[in-house]
Known about the structure:
Largest sheet: none
Distance between the termini: 55 Å
Radius of gyration: 23 Å
Number of helices: 7
Number of strands: 0
Strand content: under 5%
Shape: elongated
Helix content: 55-70%
Amino acid sequence: MTALEHTSTDVVGHHDEQVRRATAGWLIAQRSPQTVRAYRTALRQWHTWCDQHHVDPLHPGRQEMQAWVAWMSKVHGYSDATVRARHSAIKSWHAELAAEGLRTGPDPHHRLRLPDVPHEPKARLLDDTEVTALVVAARELTLPAEAAVLLMATM
Length: 155
């Protein structure tokens, strides 16, 4: 078994060679190792759920996708962000299979009801008290540190 085949065999299992190769290519094309791990986890979970519920993982209906989303939230207790991330992985996989001509039919992800995840900026501005404390701390270190903090604070 080649490294390419091994990459996808454990997450798509019994599917044909074309699906395994497309899945391996899709995983390998991801930029981040964390994304690959997350996608592999989502694929394993999706296939397990499909096996348990007698659903074709390549051609689910919209109601089956909705049932999986509800199962992740209500039965498994995943956070809203995790549910959205796992769904996004499967949606991306289905899109890859469609692009390769291995998946046809209606889009089961269209108009799916997903949990809301509020957008929170990852960075925030320091308030005046925090900037002052940072300048005082930098002043106690070195003159270049103080200059750097003052320069950043004025931007």
